Amino acid sequence: MWNRIRSWLRAMFQRSRLEREMDAELRFHVETYTEDLIRTGAPRPEAARRALIEFGGIQQAKEQCRDARGLELIDAFSQDLRYGLRMLCKSPGFTSVAVLSLALGIGANTAIFTLLDALLLRSLPVPSPQQLVRLSPSRPDGTVLFSFPMFREVEHGQRVFSGLIAWSPGSMVNVEVKGTLAQDNVQAVTGNYYSVLGVNPFLGRLITPQDAVPSGSSSQVAVLGYEFWQRIGAPSDLVGKQIRIEGQPFTVIGVNRRWFTGMSPGEPPEIIIPLTAEPLIHGNSNILQSIEDRSILWLDVAGRLKEHVTIAQAQAQLLSFWPGVLQATAPTQTPGNRLQRWLSMKLDVTSAVTGIAPDLRDQFTRPLYVLVGVVGLILLVACVNLASLMLARTVARSHEMSVRVALGAKPWTLARQVLIESLTLSFAGALLGLAFAYWGSNFLVRLMTRYYLAPVVFDLRPDLLIMSITASVAIVTGILFGLAPALRASRGDPVSILQQNSRSVAGGAGKLSKLLIVVQIALSFMLLLGAGLLVRTFQKLYSLDLGFDRGNLLEVTLSPRPSGYLNLDMNAYHRQLVERVSAIPGVHSVSFSDSHIPAQEGWRDVLSVLSEDPSAASGPMVNGTFVAPRFLQTLGIRLVHGRDFDWNDDDRHPPVAIVNRNLAERLFPKGQAIGQRVRFGVIPDFQSLEIVGVADNARVFDLRDPSAYVLYFPSLQHLKWAQWGNLFVRASAAPSVLSRAVMQEVESLGHEYILRTQSVAEVTSELLVTERATAALSALFGGLALLLACVGLYGLMSYTVTRRTNEIGIRTALGAQKRNILWMVLREAVEIVLLGIVFGIPCSLAVNRLIASMLFGVSPTDFPTILAVSLLLFTVALLAAYFPGRRASAIDPMVALRYE
User: Fold this and answer.
1) Which of 612, 705, 713, 716 has its CA nearest to residue 657?
2) String of b and e for 393-410 (b: at least 16 CB within 10 Å)?
3) Rounded to whole angstroms, how far apart are CA atoms 244 and 4?
């Protein structure tokens, strides 16, 4: 087939030599017709017709010639491609290193971008996602959710949406499937949720408005998430059967499609129930007794815009009746701070085309952007490394290319061949990189979310956008590392090159090769310094003095059994459990808290000193946590003033609180905190709290902030807010030894079961998962950059030694010692490394300011880290140059003098 195409192309190409004759003949006919027209003053039809006929024929022939030239380019490209593949196959070592380096660089970039795309950029997999908008009330302290009465008022008053939906953020509750009890993520949605989003089921059917029956109905339905359905064995006969959620029966009516995550990308609900059934699964708590409760803000709300309605128009229409919504749904009509704060809420209307996942995005966006910069530099290092290697190959082939030029090849032809060879390498690396990217992006998700109770799932399959980005990166990469060799191939003078020997030819490319290695070392220094700073940040955070003793401290996460808290005196139960666990041999102290210790943050709200002055300024934002008696003693937090909580601080006594020392100094600079009264937020239960103690500062929240304000509530006084929690056990032995004994005591009472047991040191490590992942990946990529820099330096030194073999032989024959030859090679490497470090330091200091907000305990200009990275790079680079230097020192002078 190729022979037939070439024969046809040859026949077409033969016409091109007639092109000038055709142009001349055409000009003759046109000039003849013009002269006749001027001489006679009137046009001659036969002359005009003859000129047009000739013109058309000549134009047709010229078009055929142009077509032949286009096919000639295709043939030339295919020849260059085959030639480039043959040349690469002749150098399997170089080709393998090049493809693997590019695969790692392109694959890392594709993996990070795939995850960023799935988390931030990709539209929801629903019809017309650009029509979806989110509605969110906002206060000065941040965005809040809707209550069900608020949602209903907005739904009745809006005129801009074809449908308005609401859903709960989801909660971990007891789910029993085929007799197996576990904690799973359950989300409640309005009856029109699926119809407004426009999605179809994988099995069965989805929730409809008819399923949103009043809570308390004996017939409730549920839809399973695809991933949850797969995890329980993918039983096809489960549709139509019952499962139990917090002991209540629910009939499975369908299964979602794969990758459907609702409005929250990355967080697929495992089980979806109608919104009206939400109170049924909260039978163990008093928080949500009815969806009509005005004081509980628990719903996310979104709507689908009608055709030709903009977000600005929707916001204008909603704001026109928003004050009336607040007035009609206020949890109190009593004048005061609570009503004022409620009525001052604003309404934000924003696009929801990419979904709503504030927790995931807040936690992972900044580290992912840092990794984007890191892997971008890795790819740039790989490009510079390959440019150096390709340049060396081009120089080695200078005589061959010069002979081809002397035989008639054009310089552009040689440059094109080099570029096609580099693009071939780049696309081969991109194809292998796609496989690395799919594995790498899934690994990143597992690494960053391994401590999440609910599974995090992203559709990380390469789509058209990812493929396009990868292809674009491959093209740009191939051009970047192929440009210098291509220019070198096209600009050489064949006569002078053919007259020179290999040493003089090599010398012509030496400066450019050294410059590329200097750039590579500078880039590697930037990556290593950034990685060093992030690693030191993680080490400092992990080894931080938290203000309490983490040693031999066990945290036991408890969960109520279905109906486990029904008609239970919680104060008596907690006291009984504490007494039983305290009786275990080796246990020193036991207490409760509603938070993990340490935690990212607690229940945040404004704390103010109780004052009769209405103009008194609001206090600071405070992290609140509910704790049982002896909590401070169990953790080892020193009580500075006042007293600790005891078992008498229950709901029959006036509300009390303990503040940490930073908060006491902020509110009461004169040191008179004990006996003062404060209010926390606007909820009535926390409007008159008497301070009975001041605890020493401890980093129970926000490890990075030593001045965080903490407020401790006695859990016995606030059963509505603190029925469940974590049991903390201080022991004399390792915490893992006590796990089984604590589990037996919890199970013997029959009201709760243990989800997991961890040492507080493990909880601290879990809290730092983002910092750990960022530091580990940065260190990994920094090591890869160091390896590439060493490979580049080793290649340059080896190439230099090979090209200077004759010179080394002369030096040896004249009396040079082996150590002199070795030092000659090492000195050149030292100069290159030092120059790279000198250029790398200021560039690193400028770039590392971008990650300054992620650092803790170190600055972007940290001298010990700069010194350590410099010594590491210098040592490894010397090691890479040592082996070529040792080979040079062992050259036989007689062999070297005959070498050329």
Assistant:
1) 713
2) bbbbbbbebbebbeeeee
3) 73
Nearest to 561 by CA among 742, 724, 729: 724
Over the chain, what is the mean pLDDT? 81
Percent of the chain clearing pLDDT 70 (strictly above): 80
Predicted structure pTM score: 0.79
Under the banding of pLDDT at 50, 70 and 90, the label for residue 400 is low
> Could you write out the DSSP letters of every residue in 255-304?
EPPTT--TTSTT---SEEEEGGGGGGGGTT-SS-S-TT-TT---BEEEEE
Read off φ and ψ for residue 650, nearest 5 degrees: -115, -170
Contact 591, 728 (CB under 8 A): yes
Is 435:102 a contact under the CB 8 Å cutoff? no
Q: d(Cα 274, Cα 156) in Å, to the nearest integer?
A: 20
Phi, psi dihedral angles at 227 (to 5 degrees): -65, -40
pLDDT band, residue 793 (cuts 50/70/90): confident
pLDDT for 517 beyond 60: yes
Residues listed for the chain = 900
Q: Taking the CA of residue 429 as centre, how many other CA atoms within 13 Å lie in the half-sphere pointing to its CB?
A: 34
Q: How many CA atoms lie within 13 A of 154 on its CB side?
A: 31
Query: 122, exposed or middle or buried, with CB in 10 Å at 0-12, 13-18, 19+?
Result: buried
Return the structure tokens found at 706. 């030593």
What three-state secondary structure class fits 600?
coil
Alpha-carbon separation of residue 851 from 109, 189, 447, 732, 842 (angstroms): 19, 40, 21, 41, 15
Tell me: pLDDT of 287 over 60: no
Say which residue, 490 or 593, is predicted with more confidence.
593
Report d(CA 754, CA 741) in Å as an integer. Answer: 12
